[in-house]
Amino acid sequence: MSFCFCLSLSLGGLFFTILQHLTRAGWSVVVRRVAENVAGVLPVLAVLSLPIVVAVAAGWPDSIKDVYEWRGFDPAAHVAEATPAATAHHLLLKKQAFLNPTFFTIRIAGYFIIWWWLVGFFRGNSIRQDETGDPGLTSAMQSRSALSMVLFALTTTFAAVDFLMTLDPLWFSTIFGVYFFSGGNVGFFSLLALTMCLLHRAGRAQKALSIEHFHDVGKLMFAFIVFWAYIGFSQYMLIWYANLPEETGWYLIRQEGSWKLMSLFLLLGHFVAPFLALVSRWPKRDPSTLIAAAAWMLLMHWFDMFWLVFPHAEQSVVSADPRLDTIHAAALVWTDGLQCVTCLLGVGGIFVWKMARNMASASLIPTRDPRLHESLAFENI
Amino acid sequence: MSAAATSPKEPSVPRSGAGVRLCGLLAEFRDPDALREAARRVRAAGFSRWDCHSPFPIHGIDDAIGIRLTKLPIVVFFFGLMGCLTALLLQWWTNAAKPADYPMVPTFLQGYGFLISGKPFWSFQANIPVIFELTVLFSALCAGIGMLVANNLPWFSNPLFNSERFRRVTNDAFFIRVDSTDSKFHLQQTQGFLASLGAIAVERIEDTIPTPAETRLPGGLVKTGIVLACLGLIPLAFIAVARSNKSSSPRIHLIQDMDNQEKFKAQAAHPLFKDKRAMREPIAGAIARGDLREDDRFYRGYKMGVDPKTNQPAPVYFETFPAQVPVNEAFVQRGQQRFNIYCSPCHGVDGSGRGMVNQRALELGGGWVQAADLRDADRRSRPVGQLFNTITSGVRTMPPYGDQIGETDRWAIVAYVRALQKAEGAAIEELPEKERSALRKR
Prior knowledge:
The structure holds 2 protein chains of 2 kinds.
Chain A: H1 2-22, H2 29-39, H3 42-48, H4 50-58, H5 64-67, H6 84-95, H7 101-132, H8 135-163, H9 176-201, H10 211-242, H11 245-252, H12 258-278, H13 282-285, H14 287-320, H15 326-361, H16 372-376
Helix pairs in contact in A: 1-2, 1-7, 1-8, 1-9, 2-7, 2-9, 2-15, 4-7, 7-8, 8-9, 9-10, 9-14, 10-12, 12-14, 14-15
Chain B: H1 2-6, E1 20-29, H2 32-44, E2 50-53, H3 61-65, H4 72-96, H5 124-150, E3 174-179, H6 187-196, E4 201-208, H7 212-215, H8 219-243, H9 296-299, E5 302-306, E6 313-317, H10 329-342, H11 344-347, H12 356-364, H13 377-381, H14 384-393, H15 407-423, H16 433-441
Antiparallel strand pairs in B: 1-3, 1-4, 2-3, 5-6
């Protein structure tokens, strides 16, 4: 889960970098290097994905079969007919062509190879430009950014499906990739705002970064908060309206017991509160408020991931041992919850370490980008 | 150039009208930097009704003029809130409010209460898209119109356009205009002040004072307006006619909507399928929701067993009422009501088999079988399950009633038939005390 959290942040960074080239943006040159550095963690995340990928590929430890139900699927198993289990069996059999360990591993490997290449291309060329000052590099990146964006969209969508949606192998939502992407961008822009403000406070890039850049990153953060809510509601709305049993189950487990409160908390904390807090101009232009809002949104994005992943963990714990009543199961999940906080500290620590190393390895701003002066003089009306 | 700066050129304005009036002073500056510097000093001098004009936005000019941030966003926010509430109210009123609770509202303003795919009438999920749309609509309209209002737009004519020099403002000229309504405005002093700011030219902005004839609306405009207004009534007239139209010919399909659809109707032929029918058979073994009917006792009154004599499969009828029905007085009364509706035409209200239909059919002859006396020994000895099955499936000329009467009601009729059987030839001692005294009084 923490891995998906960090992955979504890095992908957000990659998206931002590609987007700036795609749109030939001038204002963002001074903040682009931070995005490149965040995206630059992707190779490390490839290593961090190994526990999941290896476990799925090897089918060991056994608990992976509870996490990814389809991994524990036995096509030869006999189940009584006309039961829900038989329906599940039938559907899993149909999905086996896609949901099998070999193809899963190949896909994940493919995503990371593509991301690795994209990061290498955009970040590498950007750093090379620091030395050479060659404006041709900018146009080279620009000309490949459209194709890169397509690659990015496809890989991100499929990665979201593979890592998160298959936690419930019977459920499907065609908008899920966009949901993951929107949440990831909320996280990324929060991280970007936080990093910029803290850098500025620490006395770095004083002349380059100004309140105008904070304001714009704040605006993007706000926009993606709204976009996240829009996508989240679109997904919910269609499922609610159609009311098909195979789709509603996913929301049903999030509407019962303590998950109901958590879902409401997600709605309030991830959308309503930050919407009202950031809708005005001044919070985005005040570094202290922006830092607080960004930190809160990072937390909420993590909680969003928790909300995506953990109801299924609880389900599998309950179904694995029917003797456990729900209270015990919930208690068990909460100890797991503690584990996932420590996981966040671990994976997040590695993430920040790599990001910091990326920052140290190159200048904090692309010093010889042809549009740097445009960015330095940037001003909001 | 210095001569031009000190003695303002006479504008070539007046073309007609009752005279000219002074609107303000226009000073031209060489470049954006000069303009910005001059603006700073005009502001410092305390002028309040003045503005800068330039071909493109100039960095820092806002600060130099001292333009405050617009308050429009706050207004927009509240209009957005208003849109949100309007949408909420609209949807509540049209679908969730019960018209019966608001009799004072005229019928054509009352809501409908459509039941849509079994959702509650008042469900926030369905409301959110409309709330979203109306919030955006209200905010956008408010922002657009508010921007126009705040900028005094539309403004068809401005005395600045009388200035020949000002025409270069969209090309390469930079101006400061000081309005004559400014409290600090004084023609000579302000002229001198603007010149001292480094203006390359200062000129007076004058406007013609229109004659009364000029302020009148052109006659053609008024006439055109009247004609257009009359033409605008034509669609309304059509609607009014259509509302009271009694014609039985099919209506004109201006918009095809969903009236004629590319689809096959249930009983139509279909060229694609082997049996040429558009309606498809359900998949073998498919059961509609709620149609499983597993409980033999309740749904059928018998289960399949084996006849001990012939060793053939035969129905075994249940002797007692199923647990789903409460056999009590209300239940029997329900049965009486149903019996009188469905059974009494043939069997008679007393179950004797002397119903009106039966009597008439016997008179007519033609293969009618006498309706059974439900109180004879044979019917008394039959298990309730068998009576139930007879109602469900029919017997001899009696048609099946299973499709018309629900299970519970069929059981209620069975209970009432049992009551009729008991009532026939019952001794007075068997009645409750209350009924007995009522009978004695008669």
